[in-house]
Write a structure and sequence with these properties.
Layout lengths: L6 E4 L2 E5 L2 E3 L1 E5 L2 E6 L1 H5 L7 E4 L4 E4 L1 E6 L1 H9 L1 E2 L6 H14 L6 E6 L11 H7 L5 E5 L4 E4 L1 H7 L11 E5 L6 E7 H9 L6 H17 L2 E9 L1 H12 L6 E7 L9 H12 L12 E9 L33 H13 L3 E6 L2 H18 L7 E4 L5 H4 L1 H5 L2 E4 L8 H6 L1 H4 L1 H4 L5 H6 L4 E3 L10 H10 L19 H15 L16 E4 L15 E6 L2 E5 L1
Parallel strand pairs: 1-6, 2-7, 8-15, 9-10, 10-11, 15-16, 16-17, 17-18, 18-19, 19-20, 20-21
Antiparallel strand pairs: 1-4, 2-3, 4-5, 7-22, 11-12, 12-14, 13-14, 22-23, 23-24
Helix pairs in contact: 2-7, 7-8, 10-11, 18-19
Length: 549
């Protein structure tokens, strides 16, 4: 009996892995069955084989996003989505239109606003009061490190000028009256959201994940590590995996609650066991939902001065202040957590923006290595905006993966106005040292941090290679000596992130492997071709077409 293939792709260049190419690919039963010359692959087609001919295109392994927030991004897509808008007036028009169209909603929620469109990065409650005075409004900003609220929301939360700042955040206040102005930073926003804003139910979380999944698939992403998995979003993921609607391969990084201590580790173990008990219809292809990582946020961000620094922030006027930022998990607890989690077989995914946070994260991993010896947990540190040269060298010694969010490495208002003046020239020049990591032999993975910034890997690849905003290509490159080669970046967004996700079948196109594939309409390896000008024509996840232009 002759077994014909289910699908063949011809006409496009096929990048199997770095510097290895084929002319065509064949897929059957969710796996790659052949890679090779076009004539050979055409011979495998039968009467029911779908044949996609894509001259001038490029076949890549499906992208894997090593740091993304799919449920939260998807939920915003279903509610107020400000990420694609520019400016305060556009935000207010969209919020007003949503509120008018949804009179039944008791809270107006969503987010995606950018700090750069408001003086000092802090929007005010009066703007929201003017368009929605009677219902509470709570909108996370694009990086989810702050929220914009109206007076009604502050009233329901009981926040007044006499309310103290939480230890892990700040309530923005009027410098004269002390009244809250409408911006909540870090822990002030998170506590507000958890305590006051109605939480989604399971149906809403499942719909949010499916919306986020569809968006990622449209960009060629077939697998990801969700960097903020709560008990509720874990249940939603597990339900979708069990009934087959989760078509991406997902590693869940279980959220470390920074207001709790080491006692939560027992809960994390229980959640991992529950996740492993779920059987996905795609399990035989190595796909499903795997809650095997733990996410620890060690500091905040530089734009609101909560990123943890070794030396204090500048005052923006040439002098130095006394603010070193915030450390969300004290070093003793962080170290003990790494040692215990490592011993229990968890991967640990740490957020570190400032140089003090990066050092603390590395020190904690060093303690785990000393206590438990080497392992294959593939610990990684995300963001790494500011890292001292001596600490960059430690990544290889400690076998730590650099999880890079490349889209941030460009000149734009948030960098130029809210970051560089408060770092000073010496530290500003140490940001996003991608080439230095690579030169030292560090293993690289890449993630978007969507919905903080774009989920489009092609836009992120272009910034990593050019260090320029794809929307403003005439800009000067940001620290151009830190550019990466295109081969390196594509490998990091495929094989590198698959390695982080313990995905032995993902990240490269090989005969017998799961058919996770992204077909681009253009060959981004053409000389001087800007990667983000290409579009994803087709995405296959486990051999199934999950996106088609």
């Amino acid at each position: 009996m002759i077994l014909h293939t289910d699908l063949i792709i011809t006409g496009a260049k096929v990048r199997m892995e770095a510097r290895r190419w084929a002319e065509a690919v064949a897929i059957r039963d969710g796996r790659i069955t052949a890679l090779g010359p076009e004539d050979e692959i055409r011979s495998l087609a039968g009467p029911r084989t779908e044949h996609i001919h894509a001259p001038g295109g490029l076949v890549l392994p499906g992208f894997q996003d090593a740091h993304v927030h799919t449920p939260f991004g998807g939920r915003n897509l279903l509610r107020i989505w400000l990420n694609d808008l520019v400016g305060r007036h556009a935000y207010l028009d969209a919020i007003a239109a949503y509120a008018h169209a949804h009179p039944e909603e008791t809270w107006i929620t969503g987010g995606g606003w950018a700090m750069e469109h408001f003086p000092g990065g802090t929007p005010r409650k009066e703007d929201l009061d003017a368009i929605c005075p009677d219902r509470p409004v709570f909108l996370f900003n694009r990086d989810v490190h702050g929220a914009w609220v109206n007076s009604r929301a502050l009233e329901l939360a009981g926040i007044t000028k006499d309310t103290p700042d939480p230890v892990d955040g700040r309530i923005e206040r009027d410098p004269v009256t002390g009244e809250p102005t409408g911006t909540l930073h870090e822990g002030a926003a998170y506590t507000f959201n958890d305590r006051v804003v109605p939480l989604p139910g399971q149906e809403e979380w499942q719909a949010a994940i499916l919306a986020g999944q569809a968006h990622l698939h449209s960009l060629g992403v077939t697998g990801w590590q969700d960097a903020w998995v709560t008990p509720d979003t874990q249940l939603a993921y597990q339900a979708l995996a069990a009934d087959g609607r989760l078509t991406g391969r997902v590693v869940g990084a279980l959220w470390w609650e920074r207001h709790r201590g080491l006692e939560q580790i027992d809960d994390l173990v229980t959640r991992r066991v529950a996740g492993r008990a779920v059987n996905s219809p795609r399990a035989h292809l190595g796909s499903g939902f795997f809650p095997t990582s733990v996410k620890i946020m060690t500091d905040g961000i530089l734009e609101n001065h909560t990123g943890a620094l070794l030396e204090p922030y500048c005052d923006g006027c040439g002098g130095a202040g006394d603010n070193h930022g915030l450390t969300y998990v004290d070093q003793e607890t962080l170290t003990a957590a790494l040692v215990q989690l490592d011993a229990l077989g968890f991967q640990v995914h740490q957020h570190a923006i400032g140089d003090r946070a990066a050092r603390n994260a590395l020190d904690a991993i060093a303690a785990a290595r000393a206590a438990n010896g080497p392992g294959d947990h593939r610990h990684h540190i995300a963001h790494l905006q500011l890292v001292r040269p001596n600490d960059i060298k430690r990544f290889v010694d400690l076998d730590v993966i650099a999880n890079l969010q490349t889209y941030w490495a460009m000149s734009e208002p948030q960098m130029d106005e809210l970051t560089i003046p408060f770092l000073g020239p010496e530290r500003a020049a140490m940001q996003y040292r991608f080439a230095d990591f690579w030169a030292h032999g560090t293993r690289l993975a890449m993630g978007s941090d969507w919905a903080v910034t774009t989920a489009n890997p092609l836009e992120q690849i272009e910034v990593a290679v050019r260090r320029v905003d794809p929307a403003n290509r005439s800009n000067a490159p940001f620290l151009p000596d830190q550019r990466l080669a295109l081969d390196t970046v594509v490998d990091a967004f495929t094989a590198g992130s698959a390695f982080v996700n313990h995905d032995a079948e993902g990240g490269a196109l090989r005969v017998g492997a799961r058919a996770d594939i992204a077909l681009l309409d253009q060959d981004i390896f053409r000389p001087d071709f800007p990667a983000s000008d290409a579009r994803v024509r087709l995405t296959l996840a486990s051999g199934e077409i999950v996106h088609r232009l």
